[in-house]
Design goal:
alpha/beta, Rossmann fold, 2 domains, 7-stranded mixed β-sheet, 5-stranded parallel β-sheet, 15 strands
Length: 384
C-alpha cells in the first residue's frame, strides 16, 4: 500500500493568500472608516439648559442623517461625535479636550457665552474650527482667533436694537438686571451705554444670583427706585421666576428681556404672569421665512412626532451644521481652509433662520432681531 503524505505547501500558499486578502479587506475597511468626516457637537445634555442641548442634538443628528442619505459630502459620510458640556465651563473644557483628541474636523457649539469661552483656546490650539451657536458675548470674536465663528449675533448689536425699542416705546427710567455671566453682564453693559446715549435714565443696575428660588429681595430693591421698565438681560428660568414673583407682589411694572429668554419653558415657569412680557430675539420658529427654514421645520416634525424645538437657539446649531457642510463640499477639511471659505467665499447664505454670512472676525452678518410680546394665550407674537 502506497503511503500518502499530507503536504502543507499548497495549503500554506492558500492560507497565505487568504490572509493577504483578509489584510487587504481590513485595510480597505479601515480606510473607508477613516474617510468618514468627523464633526463634533458640544451641547448641554445635562444641567439647567438641558432642553436646549437635547434640541441641538436632535437637530444636528437629523441634518447629518439627511446629508448621509443623499451621498454624504463628496462621497464621504458624516460621523457625529457628541459631548455633553452640562452648561458648565469646566465640563465644557473637558468635553472640548475629548473632541479635540477624537480628530474632529470642526465643532458646533455651544449654548452660553461663558461655556463657549472655556473651550475656545482648546480648539484654536488644536487647529479645529468652532462655530458657536448661543454665545453672543462681544469678546468671543475680539480675541483674534482664526478658527472661531458664530451663527448668533453679538450683544452690542442686541444692545443697540433693545435700547432703540425701549426708546420707541417711550420708557424713560429703566432698571437693568443681569446675572454676572459673560453673556448677561456683557449685554447689560452694552445696553446701558446705548440707553444713556439716547438720554434714557438707568435708575438701577445690579445682578441677581442664578438658580435661586426667591427673587423678592431684589424685586423689592428695584421697586424702591420706581422704574417704568425692568430690562432683564439673563436667561429664561430666572426671567420666568421674576415675572411670577413680581405679579405675586402685586407690582405690574412692564418687563423686557434679552434674547436668552426666548424659550417656551419660560411660559411653564411664569404661567399667566408672562402675558405682556416683551423680549428682543432672533425670530421664533413659526416666523422662519426662508425655504430652508420651512423645509427644516417640516422635516423636524416628521422625524420627532410632530414636535418642534423649544427655541431658536438650538436651531442656530442647524445653521452652523449647514454652513459647515457647504464649506466641506467646497474646500479641504482643515481649519485654515474652512475658515477662509466661510469668511471669503460663502457670501450670503440662505439658512434656516435667515440669510447671513460671516465677517473677518467670524461674526454673523445679516439682520436678525425682532421685538416679541407674549400674548394672553402664551404665544410669542412679533410686536415690531
Amino acid at each position: 500500500m502506497k503511503k500518502r503524505y499530507f503536504s502543507f505547501g499548497g495549503c500554506m500558499k492558500k492560507i497565505t493568500w487568504f490572509a493577504f486578502l483578509g489584510l487587504c479587506l481590513f485595510a480597505w475597511t479601515g480606510a473607508a472608516f477613516a474617510e468618514n468626516i468627523k464633526i463634533g457637537l458640544m451641547c448641554p445634555l445635562t444641567g439647567g439648559w438641558t432642553s436646549e442641548g437635547k434640541d441641538m442634538e436632535r437637530i444636528v443628528s437629523l441634518l447629518a442623517e439627511e446629508v448621509n442619505k443623499n451621498g454624504g459630502i463628496n462621497g464621504k459620510q458624516i460621523e457625529l461625535v457628541i459631548e455633553d458640556d452640562a452648561g458648565d465651563p469646566r465640563s465644557a473644557a473637558l468635553a472640548a479636550q475629548k473632541l479635540a483628541s477624537n480628530e474632529v474636523v470642526a465643532v458646533i457649539g455651544t449654548y452660553g457665552s461663558a461655556v463657549t469661552e472655556a473651550t475656545q483656546n482648546i480648539y484654536d490650539e488644536s487647529e479645529i474650527l468652532q462655530i458657536g451657536t448661543g454665545s453672543t458675548s462681544v469678546r468671543l470674536t475680539e480675541k483674534g482667533l482664526d478658527y472661531f465663528f458664530r451663527t448668533c449675533p453679538r450683544d452690542d448689536e442686541q444692545g443697540i436694537v433693545a435700547a432703540r425699542y425701549i426708546q420707541k416705546l417711550g420708557y424713560k427710567n429703566v432698571a437693568i438686571v443681569h446675572d454676572n455671566s459673560s453673556y448677561s453682564s456683557g449685554l447689560a453693559e452694552e445696553s446701558r451705554a446705548e440707553l444713556e446715549k439716547l438720554g434714557i435714565n438707568v435708575v438701577f443696575y445690579d445682578a441677581l444670583t442664578p438658580k435661586e428660588r426667591d427673587y423678592s429681595p431684589i424685586l423689592t430693591k428695584i421697586k424702591a427706585v420706581n422704574p417704568d421698565l425692568i430690562f432683564f438681560t439673563a436667561y429664561y428660568p430666572e426671567a420666568g421666576l421674576l415675572l411670577r414673583q413680581k405679579s405675586e407682589m402685586g407690582w405690574d411694572v412692564p418687563m423686557i428681556g434679552g434674547d436668552a429668554v426666548n424659550n417656551l419653558d419660560l411660559l411653564k415657569i411664569a404661567g399667566k404672569s408672562a402675558e405682556g412680557f416683551l423680549f428682543v430675539s432672533p425670530p421664533v420658529l413659526k416666523d422662519f421665512s426662508t425655504e430652508q427654514g420651512k423645509a427644516f421645520l417640516n422635516a423636524y416634525k416628521a422625524k420627532y412626532d410632530d414636535t418642534l424645538p423649544q427655541s431658536v437657539w438650538a436651531v442656530l446649531a442647524g445653521d452652523a451644521f449647514n454652513v459647515l457642510v457647504e464649506a466641506l463640499k467646497n474646500t479641504e477639511p482643515d481649519a485654515e481652509a474652512l475658515s477662509a471659505y466661510l469668511k471669503n467665499d460663502l457670501g450670503e447664505y440662505e439658512g434656516i433662520t435667515g440669510t447671513f454670512g460671516f465677517n473677518q472676525k467670524g461674526d454673523r452678518v445679516g439682520p436678525l432681531y425682532r421685538l416679541y410680546e407674549v400674548d394672553k394665550n402664551g404665544n410669542f407674537v412679533i410686536k415690531e
